[in-house]
């Protein structure tokens, strides 16, 4: 695959794997990426994907894509499909190794029966509230359930009837018999199965009991012969339970769980629950809104899979929780696009200029590099004529000191064209709004360079009025106004920190004429403005819509 730029660094997980291979503990490495299909993937998942698929690729092993679909009600097939699309788009391939936890429900049930027979699990009649009360706290031990000593026969009978759908939700749970005094709350007789009377998107109404995450996950890993189960740090305290189930069941494979720190990004929320809220409250237009930190949001915005993989490589793999600056992700994309993006000129908020000494009706084509970083990309021809547009913000009538752009009497360069000097400001008499400027050009400065060595400090982008094509341009900024929207104090909700300027839609933008034939999938650099591409969803031949992927620089850098 095309990951030449992605230097492969070592990390503590690879050190463990290297040792396991040296000790002949395994012949091949098998990892897995196990999303729950209850939402779209976000950039945090991209980190987990790059680690799991990346390690498999590097060691010539395999990585399973496994849907952890043990929780009907929140999961659906739309999420399954979106996850597949996102993993593929990121550049990874699970080949034939696609799995669903729900395919193991029968085996999981049998294992639970085995635990009951071994005297290691019991059916508990405590209500969910009582279970919580009996559990104890971080400082106080819990208490045994009064049902812990049910006979094996009674447990088997009740568990079978739970499966058959005889009981209402909450009436019984199957629990492991471990230790209510354990300092690790996860080990205090955790639930293994609960009754849920909901349709499952794959098994329909076949099951009335569903396994808990901790029980299901280790079995899925063991059944698939995973060698290294790589997950984020919040599962560290669950590892003893992961090992307990596999030890008690004496499974053929006993994968090693290894935890790494989650990705946290500034100005970004990375939690499916919160992202669902944003979608459902319509604060964004959907999971693929270009402001969303979802893979589909980044894709629609115009990020490349390579930039995301490079980012994941750069942030590395460690066990230290940290907050990564979102500008690092932007930096990775800019590095790539600076090399690959064709340059064009586009004026977002046009102000008309009439070049009074340029002949009426004349037009000529000026040559420019498609990309000065890469001469191999060739040249392009840009039409010039008597009337052009520049950016409104590039003219100030009464400029402050050190203002190098256009103002009355001032000379500036039109990129790739000529020097011009502003001679007159024309206003609407009623509103006094500036409607156009009259300028003269110096024919001796073709290409934007003066033969007498005269220098100008300002260089402006422009488009020829009669050749320009119209477009709508959408500018995106951070969705949140606070660097850490995950930690908001007091009564505030994160909705209070939504950036009102996170999207700005500008109509009537004027673009270089070649952009009439802009292609979906080409990322352009609009000179002086940033990187843009056609919105894959809303743009059409008749109504061009460009997304700003990124400005040329971060505002605060
Ligand atoms: P969220 O907390 O956003 O709801 P999740 O952990 O519940 O996500 P899963 O579908 O269970 O979502 O995640 C699949 C895998 O992705 C897990 O192994 C998890 O460790 C990993 N993962 C999720 N979020 C991150 C993150 N921010 N950084 C690194 N890995 C993550
Ligand atoms: Mg989870």
Map the helices and strands.
Blueprint: H1 12-22, E1 30-33, H2 43-58, E2 62-67, H3 77-89, E3 98-100, H4 105-117, E4 121-124, H5 128-135, H6 152-164, E5 173-176, E6 191-195, E7 209-211, H7 213-223, E8 228-232, H8 239-249, E9 256-260, E10 263-265, H9 272-280, H10 295-301, H11 305-315, E11 322-324, H12 326-340, E12 343-344, E13 346-347, E14 350-355, E15 363-369, E16 379-385, E17 387-391, E18 411-414, E19 419-427, E20 434-442, E21 459-460, E22 463-464, E23 469-476, E24 503-511, E25 524-526, E26 530-534, E27 545-551
Parallel strand pairs: 1-2, 2-3, 8-9, 10-11, 12-25, 14-20, 18-21, 23-27
Antiparallel strand pairs: 4-5, 5-6, 6-7, 13-24, 14-17, 15-16, 17-22, 18-19, 19-20, 23-24, 25-26, 26-27
Helix pairs in contact: 2-11, 7-8, 11-12
The protein binds adenosine-5'-triphosphate and magnesium ion.
Please give a structural write-up.
The protein has 557 residues and is α/β, with parallel strands linked by helices. Among the domains are: 8-264, HUPs (Rossmann fold); 352-458, Ribosomal Protein L25, Chain P. Helices cover 25% and strands 24% of the residues. It contains 12 helices and 27 strands. The strands form 7 sheets. The protein has a 7-stranded mixed β-sheet, with helices on one face. α2 packs across α11 (305-315), α7 (213-223) crosses α8 (239-249) and α11 packs across α12 (326-340). The chain is elongated. Residues 1-5 have low confidence and may be disordered. The chain binds adenosine-5'-triphosphate and magnesium ion. Residues 34-36, 44-45, 47-48, 231-232, 262-263, 270-273 line the site of adenosine-5'-triphosphate.
């Amino acid at each position: 695959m095309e990951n030449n730029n992605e230097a492969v660094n070592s990390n503590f997980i690879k050190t463990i794997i290297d040792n396991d291979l040296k000790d002949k503990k395994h012949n091949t490495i098998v990892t897995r990426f196990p999303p729950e299909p209850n939402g779209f993937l976000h950039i945090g998942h991209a980190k987990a994907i790059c680690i799991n698929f990346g390690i498999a690729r590097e060691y010539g092993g395999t990585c399973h894509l496994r849907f952890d679909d043990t929780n009907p009600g929140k999961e659906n097939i739309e999420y399954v499909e979106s996850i597949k699309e996102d993993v593929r788009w990121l550049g990874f391939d699970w080949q034939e190794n696609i799995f669903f936890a729900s395919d193991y429900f029968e085996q999981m049930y049998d294992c639970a029966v085995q635990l009951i027979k071994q005297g290691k699990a019991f059916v508990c009649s405590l209500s969910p509230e009582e279970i919580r009360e009996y559990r104890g706290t971080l400082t106080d031990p819990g208490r045994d359930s009064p049902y812990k000593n049910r006979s094996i026969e009674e447990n088997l009978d009740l568990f079978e009837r739970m499966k058959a759908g005889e009981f209402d939700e909450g009436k019984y749970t199957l629990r492991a018999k471990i230790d209510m005094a354990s300092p690790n709350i996860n080990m205090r007789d955790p639930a293994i199965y609960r009754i849920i009377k909901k349709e499952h998107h794959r098994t329909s109404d076949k099951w009335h009991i569903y396994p808990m995450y901790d029980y299901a996950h280790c079995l899925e890993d063991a059944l698939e012969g995973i060698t290294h189960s790589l997950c984020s740090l919040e599962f560290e305290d669950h590892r003893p339970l992961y090992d307990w189930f596999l030890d008690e069941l004496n499974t053929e494979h006993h994968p090693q769980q290894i935890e790494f720190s989650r990705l946290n990004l500034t100005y970004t929320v990375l939690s499916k629950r919160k992202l669902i809220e944003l979608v459902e409250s319509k604060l964004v237009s959907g999971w693929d809104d270009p402001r969303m930190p979802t893979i589909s949001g980044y894709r629609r915005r115009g990020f490349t899979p390579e930039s995301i993989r490079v980012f994941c490589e750069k942030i590395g793999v460690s066990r230290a929780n940290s907050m990564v600056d979102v500008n690092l992700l932007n930096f990775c994309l800019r590095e790539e696009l600076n090399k690959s993006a064709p340059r064009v000129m586009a004026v977002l908020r046009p102000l008309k200029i009439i070049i009074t000494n340029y002949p009426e009706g004349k037009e000529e084509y000026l040559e420019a590099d498609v990309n000065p970083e890469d001469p191999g990309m060739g040249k392009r021809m840009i039409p010039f004529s008597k009337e052009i547009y520049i950016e409104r913000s590039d003219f100030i009538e009464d400029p402050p000191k050190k203002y190098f752009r256009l103002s009355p009497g001032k000379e500036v360069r039109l990129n790739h064209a000529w020097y011009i000097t502003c001679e007159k400001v024309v206003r609407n008499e009623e509103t006094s709004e500036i409607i156009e400027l009259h300028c003269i050009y110096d024919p001796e400065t073709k290409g934007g360079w003066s033969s007498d060595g005269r220098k100008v400090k300002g260089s402006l982008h422009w488009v020829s009025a009669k050749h320009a094509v119209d477009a709508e341009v959408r500018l995106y900024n951070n969705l949140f106004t606070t660097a850490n929207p995950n930690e908001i104090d007091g009564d505030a909700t994160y909705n209070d920190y939504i950036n009102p300027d996170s999207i700005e839609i500008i109509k009537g933008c004027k673009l270089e004429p070649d952009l009439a034939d802009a292609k979906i999938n080409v990322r352009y650099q609009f000179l002086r403005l940033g990187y843009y591409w056609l919105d894959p969803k809303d743009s059409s031949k008749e109504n061009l819509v460009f997304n700003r992927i990124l400005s040329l620089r971060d505002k605060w850098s």
